[in-house]
Design goal:
Largest sheet: 3 strands, mixed
Order of helices and strands: HHHHHEEHHEEHHE
Structural class: mainly alpha
Strand order of the largest sheet: 3-4-5
Strand content: 5-15%
Low-confidence stretches: 1-21
Radius of gyration: 20 Å
Amino acid sequence: MRKIIFIIALLPFLSCANSNENSIPEWAYAVENQNSIKAIDHQKWHVLLQKYVTDKGNVDYKGFKKDANALQVYLDELAANVPQKSWSRNAILAYWINAYNAYTVKLILDNYPLKSIKDIKDPWGKKFFTLGTKKYSLEEIEHEILRKMNEPRIHFAINCASFSCPNLSNQAYTEAKLESQLEAGAKAFINDKTKNTITANNIEISKIFDWFSGDFKTKGTAIDYLNQYSAVKINKNAKVKYKEYNWSLND
């Protein structure tokens, strides 16, 4: 009896041990098998980003709008090439990060001109695009796919078209470069003084670290996480405040 009770008590821990960091939710894959075996290279998205996004993340939405047909060609490519289980984890992550960012740009263009993404009714909850055979919203990609892949650096890669967001990269995320791209994005955002103010004993940081606090505490505290990337070493007892979020359009 004692042995049975001991095993039952251990079940939650065994369950956690089996859910490793590489877990990929079923929603990340195609609903039904498609012909796409190789992951797409996202080159069409990369070309558009190079044309219309600066190194500082400012987006030329007017220019993007003139190239709406080219954007649609890329979105059609995404729709026809939803990830397969044969794809690598990095290829799947790159796909969904690029999809989130590209459809966010599409949402802005469909409602342009505007001053903020929050001027749009339910911008994150609206199911306004189809990938494969399934309709999606931006929040489904973020919360039901990307966050469930246990990769907190996605928060520095996906962009909500706002000034306080991490900058929209002017490079498409790719399977081959994903690790270096996520590392560079985390370091750039955390050390960006317009997004975070960091000293050894006081930090005023983005609301992202408040809204998604659990994502950054899987291996320690939020300060432990920040110290992986911060140019300034933060003391473990530093005072923490959160910056007011600026939802102005990132143009």
